[in-house]
Each structure stands twice: as structure tokens, then as C-alpha cells.
Amino acid sequence: MDETIDTLFDLEPDDIGGKTAPVATPPEEPGVQTYVAHYTSPVTESPTKGYFEFESEHRASSKKNAHDARIRMLELFGKDAVSWVIDEVKLKKKKDELCGDQIELDFREPKKPRKRRAGKKWL
Asked: Which DSSP letter does residue 77 get?
């Protein structure tokens, strides 16, 4: 009986007649992506707010992505930016190739305001 068990493990999948499972490939990493970070300076005589673009290979809202944003902010603005805070990091959207830099117009009818449901007035 032990011999049959050992021989079953020695067989190839083609010998058994079964199909082999496809090899699972890891999902492809998107690589380096462009993000937009919004920053705010502390409330002083001249508080500043703004945004800048940076590239990172890490996912949005991760610590490594925030670290990349912080490093880029310090490279751009120097020692003044040490006390600034990064409020938000978003993935930069790619522009549509059809419109280019032209403003898109929306010719749809405006949405009608919804009517309120009739209330029960006998109470």
C-alpha cells in the first residue's frame, strides 16, 4: 500500500489525466505615478496654502507615499517648508486626449429639484 502512495506522487499531471492549474502571476505594478499633494503652513503673519506635483512608486495614502511627498516639498521650498503640513495626497488624473486643453462644455438639461413627499398633517 505504501508503494502505491509513493508512485502516485511520482506521476506527472499528464500521466494522471488531470489538467494543471495555470501559474498565478502577481498583478503588474503600475510603476511610478504622479500625485498632487496639498500643503498648509502654520498660521502666522503670512500663512500659505498650495499644491505641488510629485512622483512616487508607492500606493496613495501610504506612509511611503507621504514620505515621498514630504521629501519633494522640502526639495521645492527649502527650509521654510519644514513646519508645513501635507493635508492631502491625490492621484493626478490624466487629461483626456480628445479635448486637450480646451474646456469641456456640458449641454445637458439641469436636474429638476426633487419634490418633497407629502407629510401627514393630521398629527
From this structure: H
